[in-house]
Design a protein that fits this description.
The chain is of the alpha/beta class and 282 residues long. It is built from eleven helices and nine strands.
Length: 282
Amino acid sequence: MSKNGSPQRTIAGAPCETCPAHNIGNLKKLGINMDDWDYVVALAGNPNTGKSTIFNTITGLHQHTGNWPGKTVTRAEGGLEYGGKRYKIVDLPGTYSLLSTSLDEEVARDFILFGQPDVTVIVTDATRLERNLNLVLQVLEITNRAVVALNLMDEARRHNLTIDERRLARDLGVPVVPTAARSGEGIPDLLQAIHEVATGKVVGRPHRIQSEPPALKRAVAELVAEIEKAFPGLPNARWVALRLLDGDRRIIEAVKRGELGDLNRGASEQVNTIELPLEVAP
């Protein structure tokens, strides 16, 4: 990692440079078939950021739609070849956060958390960047395999807005690529960034809260230990612990009912539950 927090470029040929990060078992449970695909990429973003335009631009006619398993939410999938690798692109529902206050947010959150996509592209509106950073920071709490697409740069220029994408990348700790998807501007750079993160040539060092109060640190550590004991191998146990402490009712139900074990059955065939203390409940 670089000392200033910027994404770190690794040496070609390093161990696991081309190892996929996705969880095939969980992806199947989420309705994603990875046969004949090397990597899976999630597209996340607020509504009206041009996310679907980016999806259509990079996948062309190689796409289809359906519903997420057991949900009424539409799922769009596409694919492309780049750098000798085949990428499956999953267009997640447009959301303002991952706090699961709606079905769309629940679908997006579960895919990023449990599917562990090789890359999550967070599409932002360059003209309203401050509004979009909330989702960016939430995604970066879950994964370091992310790229920020600074979309609608043509509109930003029209409004005389200037964004220092290099400083933003340094502050966020992941690649930031300016794009104007309607004209195709920046799309080649975006594909290159996706490829470099997927193959491990670029490793993110995302910005995360480092100054929790001592009491919160202790509570998180205790919950993480219990979560990992009940659900061995569960990714992002710390994030789950934070959501429990925040009173996220959906995550609380998932823990109590053992749904986390259902999603992570590949790591442990036994479905466990945790008796949560009353203080966790909202």
